Every structure is written in structure tokens, then in C-alpha cells.
Amino acid sequence: MAYCPECFVEYMEGKTECIDCHVALRPGPPPAPAADDSGDDVELVSIRDFVGSGAEGWPEGIDPELARAVLEKEGIPAQIAHSPGISMIGPGGATELFVRKEDAVRAAEVLKAFFDAPAEAPGGEGES
Fold first, then answer.
1. Which uninterrupted H or E stretch holds 108?
2. Which comes out higher in pLDDT, residue 89 or 42?
3. So what's the pLDDT on residue 8?
4. Which of 46, 48, 105, 126 has the smallest number of Cβ neighbours within 10 A?
5. Average pLDDT rounded to a whole number, residues 69-94
6. Residues sharing a CB contact under 8 Å with residue 66, sequence separation 6 or more, in sequence order
7. Which CB contacts under 8 angstroms, 24+ apart, belong to 67-72?
8. What is the CA angle 39-6-20, rounded to 5?
9. Mean pLDDT, residues 95-110
10. DSSP string of 68-89?
């Protein structure tokens, strides 16, 4: 087993580079999250299940890594959890996006605003 030191996604043996971050993988499992100095446990909640498309009122085709990056750019820590499994249509699994419970409402608003924003044409205005 190996993991990406940037996004902490785990990879099977034989992989050497993260497909998203394009950095060399490190051997072994990803490190455990750092302990919270406040003594309080952090409660994580799932704000998006990436099984199927357009589920739970989210726009179709949202990539979990992009969603995580959007949240982290806004100062909202997020984690992606992959769980292998078999769906009704064949091999698959679930991917969920987790944030701290206190960030859940804001995270949903940030992602909705980002993914619902109208797409800008390449080059902007003034190009023919």
C-alpha cells in the first residue's frame, strides 16, 4: 500500500505517482490526523456522496477532488473517503466528502455557489 503525501489518497501496490497531485507516493498507509490540541473530538459529517451522478440535488459530474480543493481554498478542511464495494450495476464503491460538522452548512453553500456559477467562455470578453 502507498499514499499521496498531498491528498492522502491510498493506492494499491505498484502505483508510484498520485494521478491527481502528480507527486511521488510514499509507502505505507497515510498518517493519522494530528491530534486536536483543544481536547475536543472533531465530528465529521458527510456532505456529498459521489455514488451516481446528480444525486442529492448536486450538479452532475462533480469531481470529489475538485470539490475538496474548492472547500480548502475557502479555508474549510475536507477529507475524501473511498470505500470499495459492488453496486447493482457492477464493481464500484462509494466516495464521500467529509467536513467538520460546524462547517457543513457553509461548505454546502460554497460548493453550490462554485458549481452553479455560469461557465465563462475561454478568453473572456473582447475576443472574436
1. helix 104-116
2. 42
3. 79
4. 126
5. 72
6. none
7. 67/97, 67/111, 68/7, 68/97, 70/110, 70/111, 70/114, 71/97, 71/99, 71/107, 71/110, 71/111
8. 135
9. 89
10. HHHHHHTT--EEEEEEEEEETT
